[in-house]
Design brief:
Blueprint lengths: L6 E6 L8 H12 L3 E6 L12 E6 L7 H10 L3 E2 L2 H7 L4 H7 L8 E3 L12 E5 L9 E3 L2 H13 L4 E5 L3 H4 L2 E7 L2 E8 L19 E3 L4 H17 L9 E8 L5 E7 L13 H15 L1
Parallel strand pairs: 1-2, 1-3, 3-4
Antiparallel strand pairs: 5-8, 6-7, 6-8, 9-10, 9-12, 10-11, 12-13
Helix pairs in contact: 1-8
The chain binds adenosine-5'-diphosphate and magnesium ion.
């Protein structure tokens, strides 16, 4: 590697210090293009985050119970993608409420703060903390009583909670993930259902996901574009300031795509779902390096 090679760190967590398969593909492709790319653990005190041309947040999935520490770290990194202000906005799923209030199609959601009373919840709902990743502490409940008990347990632990109807089409059609790299749409993938009714939340860092290729529909693409366009008004940065974005959609009961999650923090990008995607990743990183 020449002395002038750009140095890029991909931030991961201690549980997966080399990143996952996705990150390995991302690192290999950058290295093949002459970029000095390395995985680094975000809370490792020995890493010099300033001595890099770019730090890319990738598999930092262990921040959910210490989000402030994670955001302090993000603010301390001079050249970070996505930017720290975007991470602060995106690591709490209450951003979905802002998007819904702005008229975007979002899975219907009830919101609870610690101290709120939880009345009886409907049967067949999903209960999750608003600060969550990898389906951790997220469960589907057939009975309203167990949903309420789960919500109260999270609220008593000081965590804000969101409750959604279980979207049945997740079991058949699946979730559609739309990935933008730089300012360009890159590829889509299908994700199978993760929440078996009544099952415990995953005890691991993240729930295992079943991924396949997907040709997005026109309606899905249009919704994804609308969500990203809305960021200019609602988020601390517009879509042109993002290195990566993932829009996760599910069909509502009438088949209309609605937003389940907008991942601007640490989305798996599922390069394996489209063999040409990794080249667009390298181009996006090089574009970012050229402008900063
Ligand atoms: N309302 C819902 N209906 C059906 N499945 C859901 C619902 N909410 C979450 N899930 C399932 O749980 C997974 C994780 O939830 P998600 O909202 O994407 O949060 P995160 O990926 O940050 O943990 C989803 O990929 C999906 O399989
Ligand atoms: Mg998700």
């Amino acid at each position: 590697m020449s002395a002038t090679a750009a140095r890029v760190l991909l931030a991961t967590c201690a549980e997966v210090p080399d990143g996952d398969d996705d990150e390995q593909a991302a690192i290999d492709a950058l290295r093949a293009d002459g970029i000095d790319a390395q995985p680094s653990v975000w809370d490792d005190p020995d890493v010099d985050w300033a001595a890099t041309d770019l730090v890319v947040v990738r598999s930092t999935w262990d921040y959910t119970l210490r989000r402030e520490e994670f955001l302090d770290w993000a603010r301390s990194v001079p050249r970070l993608a996505n930017p720290a202000a975007v991470l602060a906005w995106n690591t709490d799923k209450t951003y979905l409420r802002q998007l819904a209030d702005a008229g975007l199609p979002v899975v219907p959601t009830s919101w609870f703060q610690p101290g709120d009373e939880v009345d009886d919840l409907a049967p067949d709902v999903v209960v999750k903390p608003t600060i969550s990743a990898g389906a951790k502490d997220t469960r589907r409940h057939r009975a309203g009583s167990s949903a309420r008990a789960h919500a109260e347990q999270l609220l008593n632990a000081g965590r804000a909670v969101m409750v959604q109807p279980y979207i049945d089409a997740v079991d058949t059609v699946g979730e559609t993930g739309l990935v933008w790299l730089g300012d360009r749409f890159s590829h889509a993938f299908r994700k199978g259902a993760l929440l078996a009714a009544g099952a415990d939340a995953t005890a691991d860092l993240y729930a295992l996901e079943e991924i396949g290729a997907r040709e997005p529909s026109r309606a899905e693409m249009a919704t994804g574009e609308r969500v990203l366009d809305a960021l200019a008004e609602l988020a601390p940065a517009g879509r042109a300031d993002l290195l990566y974005a993932r829009v996760d959609l599910v069909p509502d009961p009438s088949g209309v795509p609605v937003l389940l999650e907008l991942e601007l923090t640490e989305p798996s990008l599922w390069f394996a779902a489209d063999p040409s995607a990794v080249a667009r990743w390298v181009a996006a990183v090089k574009g970012w390096l050229a402008r900063s």
